[in-house]
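pinned: reference chain
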Amino acid sequence: AAALDKGYNPASIVLDSPVVFRDRRGKTWQPQNDGGGFRGPLRLREALVQSRNLVSVRLLDAIGVQYARPYIAQFGFDEAELPPNL
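pinned: its structure tokens
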């Protein structure tokens, strides 16, 4: 829902491809899809139906964690209990 508020729509194309994040200490995190594999560019609606984790991760990165945290709190989650980087 947060991505929709930021201008994405069900027909938006998002990449389902490898991505690596590096924190301030240089530690890396490489999220994966369940079962591995990548499908390349997907419409958001397809990615959600197929539960493509990397599309969700890319959306969060695109809209920004600082936007997502208070947005999530609207649904009853305690923002203070959410990790700073989700």
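why pinned: Residues 27 and 77 are 28 Å apart (CA to CA). Residues 53-63 form the longest helix (11 residues).
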